[in-house]
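My hope is that you will study the protein record below before we discuss the fold together.
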Amino acid sequence: MRSANEIAGMVLKAARGAGMPLGCAEELSRAAPNLAARDALAIVPKLLALDFAAPAYVENAISGGHPVHAIIAWRDFCASGLEVRLETAVPPDLLGAMQTATPQAGPFDIAPDIWDKLQSFAERTFVPETDASRLAGAGAGLTDND
């Protein structure tokens, strides 16, 4: 079982590890508990494997680009009072989760394989350990007295 905060934190780290822009990663992490509540968290690793291209705005429509980025752009245009169509292929669960204002509370049962996929993306943010970094003071060293 995972808490909503734990899921959001992992999705944020995974999205950053995948190279997603910070604002998009934060929006996806806010939607993560809602995706978990819909039993749709499995779409996140698939989204993180896509190219993070920006969508285009042409003739009152958002088209192309990464689904998360497209939803954010579409939502922002609509919030400004413009009538804009979303013409990017977007998973319905993702759209619903990102439109929900209040995140779901946990705990949620997350499949271990999904968590492992998210963890593998998150691990890309880790700095590799080297002898030089340890000599410079990184890590606990030989005496961990916390």
About this structure: Residues 22-37 form the longest helix (16 residues). The helical segments are 4-18, 22-37, 43-48, 67-79, 92-99, 112-122, 131-135. The longest strand covers residues 61-63.
